[in-house]
Every structure is written in structure tokens, then in C-alpha cells.
Design a protein that fits this description.
This protein is of the alpha/beta class and 374 residues long. The chain has helices at 16-26, 41-50, 62-70, 88-97, 112-125, 139-149, 178-183, 186-189, 194-197, 199-210, 315-334, 348-366; strands at 3-9, 30-36, 78-82, 102-104, 129-131, 156-164, 214-222, 233-240, 245-251, 260-267, 270-275, 281-286, 292-295, 372-373. It is built from 12 helices and 14 strands. It binds NADPH dihydro-nicotinamide-adenine-dinucleotide phosphate and 1,5-anhydro-D-fructose. This is 1,5-anhydro-D-fructose reductase.
């Protein structure tokens, strides 16, 4: 049975809402049937009509939508939240209180306090909550995680993540660019700019692949574009439990880069390198041996994927994997079955870890780039 999806945000002119819709459809588990697609009820209705949503399930606000959907016999099975950051917690809270599972984009919140309250609410209600940390859905990211867990690179010594973009290299927010406008506004973005927008992906990837827990960080944040209220470049050092070290460089002012997310994990027996713009390949170098390029779907690779090797997969498929696994989680919830303990889906607690990362980064920077315990 297809599950019914609702969406908050993601209307006309939005970036990621459309990606969520494609990803949700890809494996046939979800059908979009309801939405509150804009802060403006008129724009919301126009977007709903364009998306083929029945007029009675096009809502002028998320509050109205949560209430009305919960009262329907054919209530949505989950809501996808694809609004600016400051709305994630209020929207998630409204739907969780209405008994509806949540698929929320990152970062989880704008403050640690709000994120903690949401973690409590998810625990109290027992309702599924999935955080779309997209990069955890890539097969070769999961392969890297499996190799580290199997000890193939030995004891991890260092984790390095570079996440570089150039779209904020100029003050485009002042020209009203939709995506930049709210990202440069602390009231909508939170206390972090680049560290929140893409730094949280880098941090999530570092911990997801290495399996390590970070216990302290030191951050040097910069707003290179004059007059910008939030950082657009973040340099961080990390210390992990067990002695491993880490570094993150996240920047949105790096000309020549688009979505340049690159990960290196080195251990005392070998190293790994993965690059988001070439996602089908994972470089694996056991010490003293030539580098092997492991290919998605290819020889020796254990992580499942959709297509045979050489038939490229990418961002949409990674996103779709999260939606497909979310469908499994929601179905088990509906059938009152035990949750799948082996799931790799990022949850509300990963979201809280991301918020603690942002908050510690901002405090470290404000204190003069000092070490802060996480
Ligand atoms: N996982 C990933 O890889 C990615 C995650 N993201 C995250 O997704 C979120 C959205 O980012 P992005 O798509 O770039 O942002 P956009 O600005 O492109 O889209 C935001 C959408 O939210 C709508 N919106 C704003 N307020 C409300 C409201 N009160 N009720 C309903 N809808 C509302 C906007 O409509 P209107 O303006 O008409 O009000 C717009 O449609 C962010 O949290 C971002 O961090 C983004 C990109 C990739
Ligand atoms: O993964 C991502 C790609 O870039 C976007 C814009 O900076 C981010 O918001 C997003 O999370």
C-alpha cells in the first residue's frame, strides 16, 4: 500500500521541496496528497493546484493542516518539513502532537533548547522522526562506514571533511535571492550560517562514517562578505572519544566549488576517501598497498544499490533511499511492530547532535577560538 505524504514548505520557487517530492516517488512508497506549501495562503494554494493536490487538502497554514489531517480517516502517514530552519520545531511539534510521523530537513532547530524539547516529545510519543541528512543515503558512504566498522582501516586516527560551495561568495541575499535571504537572517537560520547550513552535514558525515563520538571542538568562523550577519566560512578542529582527531572546512564563499563535499578517514591500517561529486567511487588504501577504487555495485562492495556498476546514481537516489527506509519505519509504526534496530536512518538525536555542534562552534568562535566540550 502506498503511504500518504503531506508537505510543509516546498512551494513555488523553493529549492529542496521538489527534490523531496522526486525522492519520495522514486521507489513508489509515497504519494503526495496534502500540503501547506507557503507562508502565504494564496501562494500555498497556487502551488497545491500546480502539484495536483485536492483543494480540500491544500492548507493555508501548518497549524490548520495538522489539525485537519489528524481528523481525517485517510490522514497522511507522514509530513515532510522543508521550510527555513526556524519553522522545523514548531511544525514538527504540531504534527507529532497530532500523532503524525515527521520527515524533517536539517538542521533540526535554531537552538539546542528547542532541539532538546523535540527529542523529549519524540521519546514521549514514540512517533517516527526522520532527519534528512542526505549524505547518509549514498551507497558508498555506507560502504565506507561498513569498512571502518569491519576494521579495514584499523584504529581511526583522523577524519577530515571539506564541504565547499560558492553560491554565497557575493551578497546575493541583499538582492532578495530566496534561498540566501533567510539563510543570512539569524532569526530564521539560527546562530550559525555556513556552520549550520552545510557544516552540520560535514559533522554528521564524519561521525556516521567513522562511528566516533566527538567530545570537543574549536571553531574559527568568518563572515567574509561585508555586512553579512552570519558566518559564511567555518574552520573547525574536532577531538573524538578514543583519541582520534578531526577537521572540518565548510565554506559557501569558495569560488569554483558547487557542492564539494569530500571525506577522508585515515586509520593505522589504511585510509578512505569519498567525494560527493563522484559518489559512485570510494578510494580505499590499505597501508603499503596501491589505492583501490571501489565502485558502487562492483566487485567486493557489500552495500546494496539500485543499478549495476557503471550506471550512475547520485543525489536523488540517496534521498530516495531515506524515503524508502522512512516508509519501512512508518509502516512498522502503523502495524505496531518493533522498530528496526539495524536502521541507519538519521533521527531526532542526530539532529540534537548537530545543534550542539553549531552551538559549540559559535561559542568557541566567540570565545576567541577556544576548545569547547560537546
Ligand atoms: N538535506 C539537504 O540536502 C538539504 C536541506 N535543506 C534544508 O531544507 C530547508 C529548506 O531549504 P530550501 O528549500 O533551500 O529553502 P527555500 O527558501 O527554497 O524554501 C523554503 C520553503 O518554505 C516555505 N515556507 C516558509 N514559511 C512557511 C510557512 N510558515 N508555512 C509553509 N511554508 C513556508 C517557503 O514558501 P514562501 O517563501 O512562499 O513562504 C518555501 O516554499 C532548510 O532547512 C535547509 O537547511 C536545503 C537544501 C538541501
Ligand atoms: O546539502 C545541502 C546543499 O546545499 C544547500 C544550500 O547551501 C544546503 O542547505 C543543503 O543542506
Amino acid at each position: 500500500m502506498t503511504l500518504k505524504l503531506g508537505m510543509v514548505g516546498g512551494g513555488r520557487g523553493a529549492f529542496i521541496g521538489g527534490v523531496h517530492r522526486i525522492a519520495a516517488r522514486l521507489d513508489g512508497h509515497w504519494e503526495l496528497v496534502a500540503g501547506a506549501f507557503s507562508s502565504d495562503p494564496k501562494r500555498a494554494a497556487t502551488s497545491a493546484a500546480e502539484l495536483g493536490i485536492a483543494a480540500e487538502r491544500s492548507y493555508g497554514s501548518f497549524v490548520e493542516m495538522a489539525k485537519a489531517e489528524a481528523a481525517r480517516p485517510d490522514c497522511i502517514d507522514a509530513v515532510a518539513i522543508v521550510t527555513p530552519n526556524h519553522l522545523h520545531v514548531p511544525v514538527a511539534t504540531a504534527f507529532l502532537r497530532a500523532g503524525i510521523p515527521v520527515i524533517c530537513d536539517k538542521p533540526l532547530a535554531t537552538t539546542v533548547k528547542d532541539a532538546e524539547a523535540l527529542v523529549l516529545l519524540v521519546a514521549e510519543t514514540g512517533i517516527p522522526f526522520i532527519l534528512t541528512q542526505t549524505y547518509t543515503g549514498y551507497p558508498m558512504v555506507r560502504e565506507a562506514r561498513a569498512l571502518v566498522a569491519a576494521g579495514r582501516i584499523g584504529h581511526v586516527r583522523h577524519v577530515q571533511v571539506e564541504y565547499l560551495q560558492d553560491w554565497l561568495a557575493e551578497p546575493v541575499e541583499r538582492g532578495g535571492q530566496k534561498q540566501a535571504s533567510w539563510r543570512a537572517d539569524p532569526a530564521q537560520s539560527g546562530a550559525g550560517g555556513c556552520i549550520a547550513d552545510i557544516g552540520t552535514h560535514a559533522f554528521n558525515l564524519a561521525t556516521f562514517v567513522s562511528g566516533l563520538v566527538a567530545h570537543a571542538l574549536l571553531a574559527d568562523l568568518t563572515a567574509f562578505v561585508p555586512g553579512r550577519a552570519l558566518d559564511d566560512n567555518a574552520a573547525l578542529l574536532l577531538r573524538f572519544q578514543g583519541g582520534a582527531k578531526g577537521m572540518i572546512w565548510a565554506s559557501q564563499v569558495a569560488p569554483g566549488t558547487k557542492n564539494g563535499l569530500r571525506l577522508r578517514v585515515v586509520g593505522d591500517a589504511g585510509g578512505l576517501m569519498w567525494d560527493q561529486e563522484h559518489p559512485d567511487d570510494l578510494e580505499f588504501t590499505p597501508i603499503g598497498q596501491p589505492t583501490q577504487t571501489l565502485r558502487r555495485g562492483g566487485e567486493g562492495v557489500v552495500t546494496a544499490s539500485r543499478l549495476p556498476a557503471g550506471h550512475p546514481e547520485g543525489y536523488l537516489e540517496a534521498f530516495a533511499t531515506l524515503y524508502t527506509e522512512a516508509a519501512g519505519m512508518v509502516r512498522r509504526f502503523r502495524e505496531r511492530a518493533k522498530p528496526d534496530q539495524a536502521t541507519m536512518l538519521p533521527t531526532v538525536t542526530d539532529g540534537l547532535a548537530g545543534m550542539r555542534f553549531i552551538s559549540a562552534g559559535v561559542r568557541s568562535h566567540e570565545g576567541g577560538a577556544v576548545w569547547i566540550n560537546l
